[in-house]
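Re: export button greyed out
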Amino acid sequence: MTAIELRGVTKEFADVTAVRGLDLTVEEGEVYGFLGPNGAGKSTTIDMVLDLVRPTEGTVRVLGQDATADGVAIRRRTGVLPDGFAVYDRLSGRKHVEFAVRSKEADDDPDALLDRVGILDDADRKAGGYSKGMRQRLALAMALAGDPDLLILDEPSSGLDPAGAKEMREIVRAEADRGATVFFSSHILEQVEAVCDRVGILREGELVAEDSVEGLREAVGGEETLEIAIAGGDADGASDAAVDAVRDLDGVSRVDRDGDALVVSCADGAKTRVIGALEDAGVAVADFHTREASLEDLFLAYTEGDAPGEGAGEEPEEVSR
Amino acid sequence: MTLAAIAEKDFQDAVRSRGMLALVALFSLLVAVFAYVVRPTGQGEQFATEALLSFAVGPFLVTTLVPLVGVVVGYNAVSGERESGSLKLLLSLPHSRADVVFGKVIGRGAALALAVLTGFLLPALVLFGLAQTGALATFNVGAFLGYTVFAAVLGVVFVAIAVGCSAAAETQRRALIGGVAIFVLFVVLWGFVTGQLLDAASGLIDPLPVSQQQVRVFLRVSNPISGVELLSSAFLGEQLFTGESVNRQISAVSMLVFWTIAPPLVGLWKFDSDDL
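Workaround output, generated via the alternate export path:
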């Protein structure tokens, strides 16, 4: 059974195509991170799942039902933390949660939900006076009402401090352990790494990658980048022969000169051989350090056209699996 | 049934607004002023509750201010939430868009009715007290209460029309323009507009088994304001649903029901197909 299933979904607005030909499947029980830069179409996709926006083409099914025809039935089993929402300024936090519980015909204790998201002490204050982070927590409490089978969180960490973001992740984990499917969007990769079983990256309305975080890392090479400073302050000091010798080594994919350094992309464990080969060729190594392809590099590689992040060492053809 | 949940939330939200308090105060103040103006001056003259209602409260308060307040209460019901983003929170919960529109009509209609009832009844309590102490010869409680209910009904009808307009509007600005148009049409231009329509359509009416005059009367009571005027004066004259105007009264009642249901339905039809 799939929790969310988009087939060939396209959404055209008057002036822009926000999503094109999107196929997306989120399995029941998984935690799925939906990534992409701002403007990639994440919110439009989520809005189609929630039936706030209707697709121009294609079908959207949620929890086995049609998003438009069965929207109310779907949302009875779904908890949503929307993006760019507003609260009812004159109603207290508790009133908000009571309203959510009643709307879902659930029997949760509003105070328990407020306590879980950490705003029980402010429950009687009018929500209009809440900070951005507290509003975010309030909407999460409303989303958690009724133990939903599916949680949809759109940019859940926005407005939260690091401690709040950590609490948010712990709640996501707990909900997943309870058996809920969690689908959440973010433009920050680090936030999804800790909690997601699978990640999809959206770029200009199309899914450009979908895998586990480890899988994505491997896809961009699973290599490290070795920066080797040459004694004498000039990479030209390394003869072409020396560079060729390094390039011919097993596990080395590319060697570039960069100012006073050589930049070598190589497999884990090839490092010692690289240094050895250079010294054998008479090149004095002053210093070296390694760099793992960071998640940021990885993300940028997928979201910023063909040019791989500088120095990260990914090849474009490896990127587009 | 989540309609009730939305209506209750919207009611609670509305009665917590400062405007609500201001409205009650305004109604009370105006009713009190009118009561003072029509107070008995001569010896032995009775305090005429009916005169207070039909010549002062009626034309000034009920037929202009109540529709205005109804429009003000209703015009931002849906469009305001759409613009602020609280509609996203609302539609994240298992509500249909129909629940939203009709929940708003009920919630805001109830809030306005409460404002009218409270605003009218506070001065009525004073008048009633004066009558008990003998300072006033008579005060017709039944007539006053009944009339207040008609005023509240008129307010609710205008809330419904304005909420329908609000649901159809994509922006607050359009909703505001629509609200102003509703007020101008029903309060100022109704006779003129329907007269023009009637003239233009006379060729269509002639073959029908109704006279121009009958259509003209029907169009007049189609305006919820005239409808409520007709019904309330029949009520004060103790001729409600009896007497010679009974047919017009029935037309008026059916048109009040029509205006309460049709505009929200049309608004919903547009709202339901919109991307939010």
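The interface with chain A takes residues 2, 5-6, 9, 12-13, 16-17, 81, 84-86, 88-89, 91-96, 275-276 of chain B (CB under 8 Å). The button fix ships in the next patch.
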